[in-house]
Design brief:
The complex is a heterodimer of chains A (222) and B (54). With 222 residues, chain A is mainly α. In chain A, 59% of the residues lie in helices and 5% in strands. Chain A has 2 domains: 50 residues, no CATH class; 168 residues, Transmembrane di-heme cytochromes, Chain C (Fumarate Reductase Cytochrome B subunit, Up-down Bundle). The chains are: A mainly alpha (222), B alpha+beta (54).
């Protein structure tokens, strides 16, 4: 069966970039990898995570400033963005595209991935765990600190419960620090830079899609 | 190295207050280790490939 272009889930952004025409023109076409709204989500999460990490961890290493207000404002922005992202992915039935599956292990033997490689899926899973933990514990901690959205109530939970909520919040922060460092490193690697470019411009070349991804898997929404 | 930051309640009972700040450098250096490990593996792989190709 001949491959269909563009595969389902891959929208053609601009059909040609070359004046050569025919196959050459098609091979230089660009395919959309990330919609504008997804890129906005990614960069909003990136900025808010860096603000959250800076406001929580810089005071720990001795750089003291009034961090609480900036921290919870960034936390609320991050929570809203993540909630929107989950709802959007669920409504578009795109949740499974980022979930690692046994079939992804074939990549270890050289098979090409669908839209996302197993490493990208695992990174997404780790970020999801860290962010959901940070948000799930951060919201009750906002009640402890008091914000315009939550009346201050440090007696809502026992001291022990507050302590364990803080443990999980700290764990999410440390995991996030590790993940952000590794994620930034890999996004800047020459062989992975096309993914950074795609997260900025939205697209990758058709050649890159063919070279690094299995178009049939992409077509199946994997 | 302690894993938790500890405190006391009003009756003097020991309580967990959070994760130990000593683990912050662990998270940072774990990230550095992964990056350095990957750089070493890539460099060795490239050297091996160059040697194989003559």
């Amino acid at each position: 069966m001949a491959a269909q272009y563009p595969p389902a889930g891959v929208e053609l952004a601009a059909s040609t970039r070359s004046a050569a025409g025919g196959d050459a023109a098609e091979s230089h076409g660009r395919v959309t990898r990330h919609a504008g709204i997804d890129r906005l989500f990614h960069w909003l999460v990136a900025v808010t995570m860096l603000v959250l990490l800076a406001t929580s961890l810089l005071p720990v290493i001795g750089i003291r400033f009034a961090w609480v207000e900036v921290h919870w404002i960034a936390g609320i922005l991050l929570s809203g963005a993540v909630l929107f992202h989950i709802l959007r992915a669920a409504l578009r039935k795109k949740l499974r595209i980022v979930v690692p599956r046994p079939a992804d292990l074939a990549e270890l033997a050289g098979a090409r991935p669908g839209k996302y490689s197993i490493a990208q899926k695992l990174t997404h899973t780790a970020f999801a765990m860290a962010l959901l933990t940070a948000i799930g514990t951060g919201v009750p901690l906002m009640i402890k600190a008091g914000t315009p959205f939550f009346e201050r109530d440090p007696y809502r939970f026992s001291l022990s419960t507050w302590g364990w909520l803080t443990v999980l919040h700290d764990l999410a922060a440390f995991l996030s620090l590790f993940l952000v460092m590794v994620h930034m490193y890999f996004s800047l690697r020459p062989e992975k830079r096309m993914y950074l470019r795609a997260m900025i411009s939205g697209g990758m070349t058709r050649d890159e899609l063919r070279q690094y991804h299995d178009e049939q898997r992409v077509q199946r929404g994997e | 190295m302690s894993i938790f930051r500890m405190g006391h309640d009003e009756w003097g009972r020991q309580l967990v207050n959070g994760l130990s700040w000593n683990l912050l450098p662990v998270a940072f250096w774990a990230g550095v280790a992964v990056i350095m490990g990957h750089l070493v593996v890539r460099t060795l792989a490239a050297r091996r490939r160059r040697r194989r190709e003559g």
